[in-house]
Amino acid sequence: MQTFVRHAAKLLAWSMCALSAAGVQGASNPELAPKGPRQDFVAPAPGTYSLPPIQRTPNGRVLDVDGRAYSLQRFTQGRITLLSFMYTYCVDPIGCPLAYATLTQLRERLIANPDMASRVRLVSMSFDPSNDDPAAMRMYAGKLADPKSPVSWKFLTTRSVAELKPMLDDLGQDVSVELDARGKPTRVLNHMLKLFLIDREGRVREIYTTAFLMPEVLFNDIQTLLLEDAR
After folding, report:
1. d(Cα 7, Cα 78) in Å, to the nearest integer?
2. 47-66 as b/e, with b when 16 or more CB fall inside 10 Å?
3. Is the alpha carbon torsion for 163, 127, 171, 223 positive or negative?
4. Were both Cys, which of 19, 21, 73, 157 would link to 126 (CB 3.0–4.6 Å)?
5. Number of helices and strands (H, E) in the chain?
6. How far apart are CA 135 and CA 211, in angstroms?
């Protein structure tokens, strides 16, 4: 509720029209692309608004695509970071594919602005370590995980749900396993799509949900934090 109020206040301050709650156009198959928030508005200029800290990011042990173990804070400090949770076999058009499409579009904007790109990091972290081991995450990431890429995009998982859950709980990221008609668990994970904008000090500064997930907004919010750092 608090996050919704924050977003609503921001949109009212912009004096913009209400946005529809869906997704942006996906990149791989236009016919299956999620329909999304309207793009027919002009976002406020970077630095003309503030993004107060919400909370500190949690810590925990994570695995990269090479199976190397690190502290999560390695990937949430030192750069402005966009963190999202996903699982590789998700097909919900307003879930993980929407986050992927949005981050891909944002990545293209960052590539066009090399000075920004070098100070930003994207992180996708799996909800399902039992399926999404480092090899699966590497396959999912493809060339996006290339360390030579102009935009750092990390694809992470954990060794177990037990190691993952405290991080999800600390961030308020709910997830549950969908049951079939007989009450048996399926492979579908129910979760609210959230992206977390994190500053260089590891503090969450904005939380985006489906209705407010637009590359232009993310891009301007990143610029706002970069301007704040410059001051």
Report:
1. 26
2. eeeebeebeebeebebbbbe
3. positive
4. 157
5. 6, 10
6. 32
Of all helices (H) and strands (E), which one includes residue 71?
strand 69-71
Predicted TM-score of the model (pTM) = 0.79
Count the residues in the chain: 231
Confidence of residue 191 (pLDDT cuts 50, 70, 90): low
Helix, strand, or coil (residue 12): helix
The DSSP bridge partners found for residue 124 are 84, 155
pLDDT by residue (tens digit) across 23-65? 333 333 333 344 445 555 677 889 999 999 999 999 999 999 9
Q: For residue 178, give the amino acid letter.
A: E
* Structural domains of the chain, with CATH: 53-230 (3.40.30.10)
Helix axes 96-111, 215-230, angle to 10 degrees: 50
DSSP letter string over 8-32? HHHHHHHT-----SS-PPPSS-GGG
